[in-house]
Amino acid sequence: MLNKYSKITFAVLLAPSISYAGEGEKHDDHHEHGEDKIEKIQVTASRLGRIVTESATRTEIINGEEIQEKALMRPGNISMLVAETGGVRVQNTSPALGSANIRLQSLYGRYTQLLSDGLPLYGGQTASIGLLQIPPTDLANVEIIKGAASSLYGGSALGGVINLISRTPSDEVEGEVLLNATSKNGQDITSYFSSPINDVISASLTAGLHNQEQQDLDSDGWLDMAAYQRATIRPRVYWESEDGANLYLTFGAMKEEREGGTVEGATVPNGNPFIQSQDSLRLDSGFIFDQPLGEVLNLNVRGSAMRQEHDHVNGLIQEKDIHESYLLESSVSGYGDTSAWLVGVAYQSDRFDSGNFSEFNYNFQVPGLFSQVDYEATDKLSLSMSARADWHSEYGTQISPRISMLYSPEHLTIRGSYGKGFFAPTPFVEDIEDAGLSRLAPFENIEEEQATTASIDISYLMDSIETSVTLFASDVENVTELELNAPYINASDKQVGMVNSAGKSEIRGAELLLRYRWRELKLTGSYLYTDATKHSQSGIGRTPLALTPKHSAGAVIMWEEHGSHLVGFEAYYTGTQHLEGNPHRDKSNAYWHLGLLGQITVGKVSYFLNAENLLNVRQTKDESLLLPMQAPSGRWTTDIWSRNDGFTVNAGIRVQFGS
Question: How many domains does the chain have?
Fold first, then answer.
């Protein structure tokens, strides 16, 4: 059994039950108590590789079993995978293109850092459309840290971190192919293969093809589901030397053509057609090198590069741009009986280059120093302290601390955390990501966005029952938002400007979770309460944050016998939400989402059938998405506060190879 502060080496990467994302791995490490076995999962997002139940930093795990279930429901992207986690909300940001971002505990989606094996392969600020371009095919598990994590990963992690951990090759050739089709005329083909090359090298390959035909479900001439064609490929290579040194290499390519807006021959209320499309090409690469330095020290060097090209069309306006992101980082860690520490240096670069609106180009250069110390004060009390100093080329010196505490008497686990962080503003708030830059005035005197987050978590685990309650709070200052007719706008076509909001956005809430397992049956229930407000535009009083339900809840019941069958039912409730800029209403309706999943496995072949949105909830049943006139930002639609796809059935087959 691993000590709390065992020295972590990359060498275990090649074991079939382990996945890696930096200075830590996931271990199925069993300690014998008669016939009992206790699974120990070692998390990586907190950098020092603590066992999840013994880590002071609360890290939520979406395990491989859940990933396999969600991959049957939505093989093309990870939106459903993360959306059904407590305190996580996937918010649709573009009714035209269908893009979405991830809100952790109601913090803005741009504050969430999305990582792949600990590397920012999708960019420093992951574009909203990026969430829909990542298939779950090759995932072993997912780690989620909620609250300010800038001390660990810099300014892009102001709201938290979602770390996608890939599968690692076993000692035998293995793989799978999944074929899927939907009742809305969508198709997916995904595949994963892995194999040892020789005694020290192994490799894996993930590839996928995805297609969706356009859907105008209410026949109003505006597409409710955008059409897209997408291809992805990602090879990975793993190398281990005899002296314990290890190297991980990954490369990725994604190409997509996506089109929304008006259908052919239709017009928006001004009498003109309005096509919204985006062609994307993303290329990325990354590496992680790990070298033991004696018995107690470890050297880790990692880096990544990402280049993404976009070709947008918004009505009559065409925009071409390039996003680039680079990371180079080195750290040394040490492990003792009661403590572990890490010190590192990092250099990050984020660049945006617009071929049409060069006034919004930016090139952020951010060198930084970071450190983390984990200390076991007693068998029941441990602490984790981390801090980071970034020297941002645009926003100056930024200091980001975080402290976490764990107290674990008997069956209880109590965690508390407090952190601060920053975010470097860019033009890409949600409306601008949707409508483009043509109506945005050049902005100046914008300050960095800053947040302070705190939480306390109490968990109880006994036999087959797990319960937890989490209380959380966040204060966000200098939130960037669009302002109509900002005073510095001179050109008539520049109808909105970007400003720092007055006062704080304040978010308070609570999460409740219950898990119960009895033989092949497992039940999960969750509830989230959120009170999120900001200063009103009039400067008097406070107003609720838009698109933030005060009450939401979910329940999942799953009956599964491995290698034979699976039947699952899920129900999710979303309460009313405050709306802005919607001419039809100021408050949304509450709604339910119900789903039913079945799978039968014969040998290595599985047949699955999934029904989503059984109640056929669809926002356009009640009102049109179209605005009576174009918004100042350039949008022609209201926000999506409900579902927009209606009742959908998908079915397919999954064939597995090897062990």
Answer: 1
